[in-house]
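Write out this protein's structure.
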Amino acid sequence: DETNIGTSVSVAPDKAGDVYFLRSRLNANDPANWVWETDVSKIAPDLTVSLIVVLGSVNANTYGMAPRGIAFDAAGNLYIADTYNNAIRKVSGGTVTTVFSNVNLPVSIAFDSIGAMYVATASGTIVKAPLSQATLTPIPLTGGTLGANPSIAVDNSGNIYVADFSNSQVKKISPSGVVTVVAGNQKYLYYGGENILAVNAVFRAPRDLAVGADGSLYLSDTGVNRVYKIDPKGNLTTFANIAGPLAVDSSGNLYVGSGGGIYKVTPTGVASPYASIPNGVGAIAMTIDTGGNLYI
């Protein structure tokens, strides 16, 4: 079944089947001035939609839609990369607080297994806040650099995976800061591929990625409307013929924000509509909490 949830800008599923979503939509009281409202809402298993918290408004002519990325910490707190306000927000118990107010254009956010926060900025810098520390510090990188507007995910070993949109590659940053390319080689005039090594593929617009429990990577290439799967051995295959922001639950189901809606893709690659977002710009980020709730 499907439910109309408006204009979504960011998504995340829990074991109870609840879906939470971050969205921006035109303020009905001021549509002429392109004032967007941002809120977090929840879709229950019976498809009931309830408002959790209102985050505020932003003028799209000046700032665009401010939120760009969301993620949960191990305690179940939701964090939001508030891009055009240069801030990281925390949502806990319906209350919004500012955790960091000096991050230059944060575009993606992730947590590792011990609770450290990682934030990617629009300039391609990765900053980190270790557990229980209130300071974000840049991670020194060796062996490579990142392009603008990267999307990040962290595996259970503390490796950071980056969808490097500007360079059409997927890169891995080790805990010691060493950068290696795991997918994408622009020497080959070919988009994607079937049953090839990921390092030999060329991507058109790698926008987002997610890490599965088995270490597989899922890469969304909006340029060719596909999600690719890269297994732990580095083999690349087409996983789904849709594209958009990604999230993986503990059962291995992949959620994809595509075409104004959210799709659920089973571990065997069967895609079906999960929630409809008509008349909107669609989701731009998704995440899953420790209970399996999907936030958009």
